[in-house]
Each structure stands twice: as structure tokens, then as C-alpha cells.
Amino acid sequence: MASPVSSTRSAAQATYSAYKRQPIRWRLAGGSAALTLVILLGFAVIVGTLTTRAIYSDFNRQVASAADRLEAQLRYDFKQLDPNGNPQYTPNIDLDSYVSSTNAAVRVVYLNGQRFDGSRNAPSFGAPDASRKEVDGWRVETREAPLSRPGTAVYYTLAIQYARRMSDVRATANRVKVFLGLGVLGGAGLALLAGLATARRAMEPIAELTATAREVERTGDATVAIPRPEADDEVAELATTFEEMLQALEKERAETALTLERQREFVADASHELRTPLTSVLANLELLEETLTGEHKEAAASALRSSKRMRRLVADLLLLARQDAGRVPIQHRPVDLSEIVAAAAAELEPVAGDHEISITARPGAWIEGVQDELHRLVLNLMENALRHTDPGTAVEASVERQGDQIVLAVEDDGPGIAPELREKVFERFFRAHGDRSGSSGLGLAIVRAVAESHHGSVSLEPPLDGRGARFVVRFPASP
């Protein structure tokens, strides 16, 4: 069971974490409002205490003063004797009228507490006691008054009990507390609004820098003008640092772009230059393979296979280098993608082994493109399916028109591709873990490069019937 101390610490940590997650302007405004609330609360407690004390003290003085005035004014005149010989007195003040304007009560009693006279609304306050201040919600002041008979000594001693309800002064004190509470809340609310407005104005330069950073992220243009605040403060220093960082990044990017451009040019030129000696080597090796016998012929055949693979790799590098360098060696012309798929399937049929290749491609799937590059695209997709599926499985290629697009799909019955590799398979030189097919890892990269150079796209989509892998290439249809 957690101790109260640890629970309190955990709650404090959670509160602090929640506070740190709030935006800066809300933290600034909240801190300002909290500080204002604490100050106003302290002020309200002091003012409220002093004010309520003054109200109660003033009320007590008013009651005492009214009792003193009543003691000085109230007189009972002897009237006559009743049949029992008791004297009858007449007051010189109508007590009901006297107390009607002040919501007070007056009770005149004998010293034993028996009523002698009083206002009609006066309850019993008990026996007169000069030390008693509150009785049943009434503030009571007691004064003694002699009652004499003309021409004689003191006959009776009376007590005047003047009282006012404490609820009157409590209502006033409560109103003061309510007003102070509303003032505290209103002041804290105004402090919060003022803090938000101030924080928003203070954060405007930061917001401008953020907008500039987003613009740089969106456009990739590091040469945009950085807004500078008028004040020479921390925000201005941040803007200067940000500008210097962008300048450094732009310089590095320019140098990197120049280096990459030189590398692309070098790869493209080197690949182009390698084609001629490779063609000569292949011709000589083919001639040697035909003329030699025995082990020498096998060595020549092995060298010929390696040279053909090198030629294929050089051709792939040349195509990718041209795409990177933006070179378009051949003008795009209308071509029928169905015919290209059929030609690629016929070319792979002799080396398909136990695989079953099927195509569904009606003539008339016209697109604008380069026939050799599109042939390479289809060939790579189908070779990829043959290479990564077991013998005896099927590879199917289909071409169809969907609206204003020509869609090429190549499916197989292999093990499929893991979801986390769906984008990586199109990267250059990427080969899955354990891939021993001997591929260069450029096949699908060339597929993407050719598709994009023809204003199309390629994606790995979920198989239709639970099959292995399904590659889909979409091209804009030719008018």
C-alpha cells in the first residue's frame, strides 16, 4: 500500500508534467493569473478581516449609543393607583414607533426579568445582565432606569433591554465577503486575459520564426528572409542563429548537390563508356566458347555469363544515372503496353523452368513512353516474381484500362513481402535478409525510376486472392 507521502509526491509530479505539456503562452498567463490570485487572496483576507471587524464594532457602537439615548429619553409618569393599590405609569415614548425605523426591539423589565413594558416585537431576553451581549441572535444592551413616584423616594428599579438582530450585520459582512471574492476571481480572470494577450504579443516573433521554418520545410528554400524583431533581445539572437544555420545548411546543400551531380555525371559517363569494351569482351568470349573445348570451354562459358551479368548491371546503372541526371535520350512515343508484356513473357518463357507464366493483356493499352525502358520494367517485375517464388508456382501479368489510366499488375504465388518492407523493396541495392537469389538489388529500383519517368507510379498492394505479392504500375493513358 502506497504511503500518503508517496501518493502526494506522485500527484505533484503528475501535475507538474501536465503543466509542462501546456503551451508557453498558457503557462505564462497561468503563472501571472496564479500570482495575481495569491496576491488578491491575501489582500482580500486582510481587507475582509479588518472590514468585518469594523462593521461589527460599528454595529455594537450603534446599539450601545441607541441604548444610551433611550435611557436618557425614556420616562414613565405616574398616573394613578389601580384597585389593588399598585401605581400605574404612562411612558413618554411610543416604543413601537421608536424601534420601527431601526428594526430593533425594546423590553423594559423588572430586575427579576418580569416584563414591565416594551415593543410588541420584543422577545424575552431573560433577566437583565449587563455582561450579556448576544441572546438568541439579538445584540442586547442593558441599561438601568429608576422608576419613582412623585414626592417619594425610589419606588422601583427597571432595566431597559435594547436589542437589534445580528442577522442585519452578518448580512452586511457576508456581502462584503462576496464582493471581495468576486473581486478576487475577477482580478484573476482579468490577469489571465491580460497575460494571454501579453504572452501572445511576446510570442509573435517566435510564431513568425515558426512560420518561416515551416515554409522552409515545405519549399526546401533556405534563402528565405528571416523576420527580425525590433528589440535586441533573446528572440533577436534566436533569429540571427536561425539565419546563420540556414545559410550554413544552404551552403552544405549546394556543395552536396554539386558533389552528387558530379557523381551522377561520372556514373552515367562511366556506364556509357563501359558498354563498348563490354560488348567487345562479350563478342570475344562468345567466339572463344564456340572454338574451345573441354575445361577451357567451360571457363569461357563462365566468363561469358559473368560478363553478361556485368553488362546487365552496367545497363541498369546507366538507366538509373540518366534518370538521376534528368537525361531523356529518347523521345516518348505511343506504345502498346500489352505488346510489351507479351514480348517480355515470351522472352522469359525459356528460362521460367517449372514456373507457369500467364498474361491477360488485350491489345490497345496505349501509353506515351520509351519501349526499351518499359520492356525493362516489365521484365524486371516478372523476373523478380520468378526469382523469389518456388518452382511450380504461377506468375500472372495483366494489363487493363481503368478510367484514364493503364494499369499493369504482376502477381505471384510466393511467400509474399513483409509489411515493413513494402517501401524498402524499391530502394537501390536492397535485398531482404537471407536473399540468395544473386540479384543486384536494382531491379525494383529501375521499375520505380522508369515508372516515374513515364509520369506513372508503382506500389506493392495487397494480393487479391491471398496470393504472394502483387506489384501494380499505373501509367496515364495515351490520348
From TrEMBL:
Q: EC number(s) in its UniProt entry?
A: 2.7.13.3
Q: Does the keyword Membrane apply?
A: yes
- GO terms, molecular function: kinase activity
Q: Which subcellular locations apply to this protein? A: Cell membrane
Domain of life per record? Bacteria
What catalytic reaction does the record list? ATP + protein L-histidine = ADP + protein N-phospho-L-histidine
- What positions does the domain Histidine kinase occupy? 269-479
| Annotated transmembrane regions | 28-51, 178-197
Q: Which residue ranges does the record assign to the HAMP domain?
A: 200-254
Q: What class of enzyme is it?
A: transferase
User: Would the keyword Transmembrane helix be found if you checked this record's keyword annotation?
Assistant: yes
Keyword annotations of the record: Kinase, Membrane, Phosphoprotein, Transferase, Transmembrane, Transmembrane helix, Two-component regulatory system
Indicate where this protein is primarily found: membrane
| Protein name as it appears in the record | histidine kinase
At the highest ranks, the source species' classification is:
Bacteria, Bacillati, Actinomycetota, Thermoleophilia, Solirubrobacterales
